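User: Hi! I'm a student and our assignment asks us to look at how structure tokens line up with a sequence. Could you show me two examples?

Assistant: Happy to help. In each example below, the sequence comes first and the structure tokens follow. Example one:
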Amino acid sequence: MNWKRKDLLGLEELSRQEIEFILDTAGSFKEVSTRAVKKVPALRGKTIVNLFFEPSTRTKTSFELAAKRLSADILSFEVSTSSVSKGETIVDTARNIEAMKVDCFIVRHSVSGAPLIISKAVKAAVINAGDGCHEHPTQALLDLFTVKEVFGKISGLNIAIIGDIYHSRVARSNIWGFTKLGAKVTVCGPPTLIPHGVEQTGVSICYSVAEAVKNADIVYLLRIQKERQQENFFPSQAEYRNFFGFDYKKFQFQKNKFFLMHPGPMNRGLEISTESAEKENSLILQQVTNGIAVRMAVLYLTVRQVH
């Protein structure tokens, strides 16, 4: 197929064919990171801007490396030292930077829909690097890529997503991605952290980690997002850890072999035990590695649409 989108704002709007095309493109780029000279000239002369209004380690660094390995120039925008701190709007910020002839904005913002607003105001490509509680499409794409790398397929697999579903943009993107590619998705967490109507996206709901893990091929653990919780969604961290925290020792009796995933950063000892994070069935670092190839693919496909 021919890729025709200059923006990547979420997986909800993508077709199965588009998602698979990104994954296939990422597969061709993964080999670049194994070379002695980790660089190809695919985006030479292009300028990418990391427009991050929230803290980030993995996503921001991964996009920077992806851009550099495509031979693009990359600028990292520091909100604390910018005119945003003086009251400038995000649209004015983007337009002023675009006037310097940049080709792509990678946007992370605490407000859902911020990348969409910017995409309507600029001609440059816009990639959503996480907006509020809405979506985090490149995280889901690297998760899909990792699962396909391990199993050779996604269709027919059982995916259990456990934790703070309500506040998680990662969960939303993964639900769209995995269901569109034919996986069966179960979400699990305290009732207060399960969004109303989530079953309409095609997922099943359960409130027992043991039940969620029972037939799972992938157990995907989510971070408790303390920064987004303005209310007490559970009595205490100790109670959450007791009922929904993942400790591999609890599930050694399981007959099915499953793999653990986590988008990071991890709250060790809360949603996941240190031993579980370090087990041989953990794909957490493999996810980080694959993030570069996936983001190379997304940059390559979108930026080439900018004229």
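Example two works the same way, sequence first and then tokens:
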Amino acid sequence: MSTHVDQPTGETHPSTRVYVVVFIVLALMTAVELALSMDYFVVPRNLLTPLFLAGALIKASLVAAFYMHLKYDTKFYTYIIVIPVILLIVFAIMATIS
């Protein structure tokens, strides 16, 4: 009888400390975005949209990497998530240019 055994990937599951640090980074980024939207910082209006989009992309990447465990999973799942996001960004840039 054969039993299935998962092969170790060499990386361990993240500790609680890692989750807390990622949470703090996400909270700080959200606070900065909120302050930007409430005019606490002097930022030209035409830069706000790219800043918010970059922040959203970074925060989504952190959530996917750590809370969805893509950082510790096989690269196949990372590609399944990353390739459509890259295509979405390219298409959004092309739509704004034309």
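Here is something you could point out in your write-up. The mean pLDDT is 82.
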